[in-house]
Write a structure and sequence with these properties.
There is one protein chain. The strands form three sheets. This protein has a three-stranded antiparallel β-sheet with strand order 1-4-5. Strands 2-6-3 form a three-stranded mixed β-sheet, with no helix packed on it. The protein has a two-stranded antiparallel sheet with strand order 7-8. β4 and β5 form a beta hairpin. It is elongated. The chain is α+β, with helices and mostly antiparallel strands. It is about 50% helix and about 20% strand.
């Protein structure tokens, strides 16, 4: 007669079933099955971050290359451009001094000067050298304009340009020579008309001059 307990025969099937479940992963914790997915997601996020960093670096590199290219172009023609500014100034002075009602040969000379100035400015513009000539009433820009004097004005508000004494030029966004301008003094501008046409009286009061 065997010494094996009687209940051993009843526990054997349960043990075998547990072993079978373990082999097939049926008794594994649910979180253990998500571990590979979490690893894939983490790897995806890492590669996405790397891609964004590379794209940002490429954009910065592109901007630096463009800046360096503009600097090289500006350096190459800056000195030559400055030498030509004197030619542009002389043409402008000649046109300002030319008679407005010229006839005959004089009229042809004035037309030739105008065409020469236009061609020169077009050549400047095509090479990145742009004319800076603010009109009356345009806001004063300290980066492009140089105030030569300040005077009151009835038509231009304070701080705005009244007239341009000498044109300026900028090359690829860099000021080669600021425009020399006259600026309206503080408090300038059109005065509001008095609808009653009032005039100050001798006692300090006002009265209607049309009454």
């Amino acid at each position: 007669m065997s010494d094996r307990p009687l209940n051993d025969t009843s526990e054997t099937p349960a043990a075998d079933a547990a072993e079978t479940d373990a082999e097939h992963g049926l008794n594994a914790h649910p979180a253990d099955g998500l571990a590979p997915l979490d690893a894939v997601i983490a790897e995806r996020d890492e590669w996405k971050d790397r891609a964004l960093r590379v794209a940002a670096e490429m954009e910065n590199l592109k901007r630096r290359a463009e800046t360096q290219q503009n600097d090289a172009r500006a350096f190459a023609i800056q000195r030559f451009a400055k030498d030509l500014l004197g030619v542009a100034d002389n043409l402008e002075r000649a046109l300002m001094a030319a008679p407005k009602d010229a006839e005959g040969a004089t009229a042809g000379l004035v037309t030739g000067l105008e065409m020469t100035q236009k061609a020169l400015l077009q050549a400047f513009d095509s090479n990145g050298l742009k004319l800076v000539k603010p009109q009356a009433g345009e806001a004063f820009n300290p980066h492009l304009h140089q105030a030569m004097m300040e005077q009151p004005s009835d038509t231009v508000p304070g701080g705005a340009v009244i007239q341009t004494m000498q044109s300026g030029f900028e090359l690829f966004g860099r000021t080669i020579r600021p425009a020399m301008v006259v600026v309206a003094a503080k408090g300038s501008g059109a005065k509001a008309a008095n609808p009653y046409d009032a005039h100050p009286a001798s006692d300090g009061q006002t009265f209607d001059g049309k009454a």
